[in-house]
Design goal:
Low-confidence stretches: none
Bound molecules: zinc ion
Radius of gyration: 21 Å
CATH class of the largest domain: Alpha Beta
Number of domains: 3
Number of helices: 5
Largest sheet: 7 strands, mixed
Number of strands: 15
CATH architecture of the largest domain: Alpha-Beta Complex
CATH superfamily of the largest domain: Nucleoside Triphosphate Pyrophosphohydrolase
Mean pLDDT: 94
Helix content: 10-25%
Distance between the termini: 34 Å
Strand content: 35-45%
CATH topology of the largest domain: Nucleoside Triphosphate Pyrophosphohydrolase
Length: 249
Amino acid sequence: MKKHYAMKGRELVLRADGADLTAADLDVLADACGSLDRFAEASSEIEALAIKNIEDLPEGYRREPIRGYFAVREVGDIGQCSRAKALMEWRQLTKFCGRCGAPLKDHGTQTARVCPECGNMIFPRIEPCIIVLVYREGKILLAKHVQRNQDIYACIAGFVEAGETIEQAVEREIYEETRLRVKNVRYFGSQSWPFPAQLMLAFTADYAGGDIQLQADEIADARWFDPNDCPASPQPGSIAYRLIAAARR
Ligand SMILES: [Zn+2]
């Protein structure tokens, strides 16, 4: 089903009456709030508007953080919204050719941008990230990140670096953040996480050795918790939530 999204940064604009946005709503919001970009993609059945000013919405609309939206929507809607957000970010950051500097144009038929000067084609960017829940005798390892303003404990996560395998990224991130070694790394699932372009690849692993030593600039605390008695954890709609929920069974 075709979905319409209006967004700015990490927030969506929703109708206050709870109904889905329509193309007419995007027109209203573009007029009232200004439009930075608007695009439609037939294959994914999305149309999205990036608005200039989200501070002063017209009557009948409200703001909602995209992550909060994910927490209460169906998987299909989350997928469409993720794609709209990811493509919007990519379009806003992909305006000039990295090879020759000329302004890019939309490709006529594909979701890509093309350089009219040198023919360079640029496709939407995806950044693979690993996220891992480590088990030790029925307990799970959760960490509190220095940079997050929320006071939450979450799974170890990080970007896959150039030249390494996903498995190496799992072992490296755990070691860097906590100095622990792991074994039995097992694939759990994945999720698009367009903040701005991550593909989250989730794993579980078993403790293999070492004592927790925190990486000072990144991790404020890391501990083993009983999965049924752990502090505030990520909200529904995220793969981190699913990892921790699976540990409770
Ligand atoms: Zn070029």
